[in-house]
Design goal:
The complex is a heterodimer. Chain A is mostly beta strands. Chain A is built from no helices and eleven strands. In chain A, a hairpin with a 2-residue loop joins β5 and β6. The chains are: A mainly beta, B mainly beta. The interface between A and B is medium-sized, with 26 and 22 residues.
């Protein structure tokens, strides 16, 4: 079984809809992250969390919110999706040194 | 975190060594060099990291120059499955920082038969 899982893997939605992307990990790491990637570009950090009670904004948090329900779960929400949020979204967990990424969620907002 | 510069693309023949360079002339004394790769639309994969000394693991070798201003990732026997975007990242190895990885444009490595 994969150490970092993301659901759904693909999602198509309409402008204005609320969307939740979920991430679970079995690695036992305290640190978790959400990134987005646009075609041909590097990853941009949306939010990160160092433990269940710790939530921090990244580079591009506007339009997004997160919830750290447990050590193993970190969810990303788009309260009112817009087309320029169409992207590939990655969740990651980390030790002090190394980040481990999930397989990604491809989100399309029409 | 220090900025890195990588060539946009490189080619390598299957079975040969792939040598991917990275410049990081503004690196600080407490910053590590990390390498990740991303195979098309998959999650980035950790490869290796180092501070001063050369490092080797089952995937690759990392050669860091003595002044630490540049480094080279070596895939000793490249295969078609090594075709990916390779990212060189310089950052403090956690502790005081929040461990954020700043991904640049990377190098597109194409391994051909």
């Amino acid at each position: 079984d994969a150490d970092v899982t993301q659901t759904p893997r693909n999602r198509i939605t309409k402008t204005g809809k609320r969307i939740m992307l979920e991430c679970s990990q079995t690695k036992g790491h305290d640190r978790m992250y959400w990134y987005r990637q646009d075609p041909g570009l590097g990853l941009q950090l949306i939010y990160y969390s160092f433990d269940v009670k710790d939530i921090n904004k990244g580079e591009i948090s506007d339009g997004y919110s997160v919830s750290r329900q447990a050590q193993a779960k970190f969810s990303l929400s788009l309260e009112s999706a817009i087309p320029n949020q169409t992207a590939l979204y990655f969740c990651a967990t980390s030790t002090r040194d190394t980040q481990y990424f999930g397989p990604g969620t491809r989100l399309t907002v029409l | 975190d220090a900025k890195t510069t990588q060539p946009p693309s490189m080619d390598c023949a299957e079975g040969r060594a792939a040598n991917l360079p990275c410049n990081h002339s503004t690196i600080s004394g407490n910053e590590y060099v990390y390498w990740y790769r991303q195979i098309h639309s998959q999650g980035p994969q950790y490869i290796i990291h180092g501070l001063k000394n050369n490092e080797t693991n089952e995937m690759a070798s990392l050669i860091i120059t003595e002044d630490r201003k540049s480094s080279t990732l070596i895939l000793p026997h490249a295969t078609l499955r090594d075709t990916a975007v390779y990212y060189c990242i310089v950052r403090v190895a956690s502790g005081t920082s929040y461990g954020k990885l700043t991904f640049g444009q990377g190098t597109i490595l194409t391994v051909h038969p």
